[in-house]
Amino acid sequence: MKARVLGVLSVLVILLVLIISNVILTSSSRELTQEIQINRVASLNRIALLAYDATVETDTSGLQLEMDTYSALYDEGILVRLQGKILESGALDARRADVIEALGRASLNLSDTTLPVITPLGSGTEVISRSVGSANQVLGEVVLEVRLDAARQKLLLRWLLVGLAAAGLSILLLFAAWRVTGWVLRPVHRLNEAVTQLRETGRSDSLPEDGPPELRELNRSFTAMAEAVSESLESQRQLIADTSHELRNPIGALRLRVDLLLLQLSNATEREAGAGVLKELERVEELLDSVLRLAVAEHRAFEGSAREALNSPNATMAATTNPFLVVEEEIDRAQPAALRAGTSISFDTVEDPQVVIACNPVELAQMIGELLTNALKYAEGSKISAALHVGLGRVVIAITDSGPGLTGQQLAQATTRFWRGTGHEGIRGTGMGMTIVQKLAEANGGHLVLGPNDTQGLSARLEFGVKDSHPTIGTP
């Protein structure tokens, strides 16, 4: 941004300096031209007056002497034509086209005493002329040669001085533009650093209030926003921690009392009632655990969306992991439960693809574990398989089963809090598993996609962007 601003300012500065320099140079040329013109017109008028006197006295010797003296002094030629007689001095050639033209205008009583504006790169001489006599009678003509070499050298020196001054002024103005641009954009750079800090840590230091008034106000607004975001995130963290502590302790104490009470029950009816109480208490514990895990997942999703809003669309998360290792570990952990349910879990992949995704490894393990648990719970006895596919810049982890599956309407509701499918009322659960998986996937920049299996059952797919990988394998 600084380079673009400096580029625009540099163009404007150069244009300004060029305009000012052009005005000064043009004024200098006109001033020098006018100075020479006034001097030479005075000499021309004096020669014309002497020529008139010579005509009256019929003696041109004095006129010729004056002409020779002038030419010797200024190295400029003079030509005087009096009633057909021509007097010359210097090296002025009477056959030059401009001299002939000047004599013609003077014979018509038209004075030509204007010099063109001098330029340092010009060459040659100019001529000025006027008639001899009165306005009613032309007795002769005078042509004066004007040499401009000395004036051109003088003007060239002035132009060089102006050029040096313009270069110095340009450097000074560009330096000033660089300093001003830095002063203006310094708060913007600080703001960018603060945004990066807020994105990566959830916190941001207060920005100093300097720079232009508009940017100072922007810094104040961002600082207030960053404090609000940080306080909100911290408040959610504290709420989750406090809720976990405040609820788990009394429930744990209640569980202990129920266990002690069961030891004191004497008959089968009482023990059966106590077992029912214990079962409901276990359900409350499971529900509380799910609620807390959902709260953590939603909080993580909120953190991810807040940071994504402060970052570019292609931003990646800080935590990375190899999904192959996580899937393999979770399958090994779920195999005993699968054997008890009368099935097994297959892993459809080739050798370790060495792919890395931007995802928290602990949360990835929670997501895969939850999907495997759901498959074992609601598709008991069916074939369950896990697959890892890499291609088109993404990684897909698919958990599929050959169970009863879900209808289109049920698939749309499956990630809703506390939703339980028809016929699942007798299966232990809270209805928040898929919601937790969805929120954790969003927190890590991924997606949960539920759909029917190719043949029969349910397919749950976790999709993540590839952070770094070797040659890809397979296709989803």
Give an account of the 3D structure.
The protein is of the alpha+beta class and 476 residues long. The chain has helices spanning 2-57, 61-74, 97-107, 149-201, 213-264, 268-309, 323-340, 361-378, 408-413, 433-443; strands spanning 78-82, 85-89, 125-133, 138-147, 345-348, 356-357, 384-391, 394-401, 447-452, 458-468. It has 3 domains: 2-155, 2-Layer Sandwich (Beta-Lactamase), CATH 3.30.450.20; 213-309, Orthogonal Bundle (Helix Hairpins), CATH 1.10.287; 323-468, Heat Shock Protein 90 (2-Layer Sandwich). Helix content is 59%, strand content 14%. Strands 5, 6, 7, 8, 9 and 10 form a 6-stranded mixed beta sheet that branches. A 4-stranded antiparallel beta sheet has the order 2-1-4-3, sandwiched between helices. The protein is rod-shaped and about 165 Å long.
Question: What's the short version?
Answer:
The chain is of the alpha+beta class and 476 residues long.
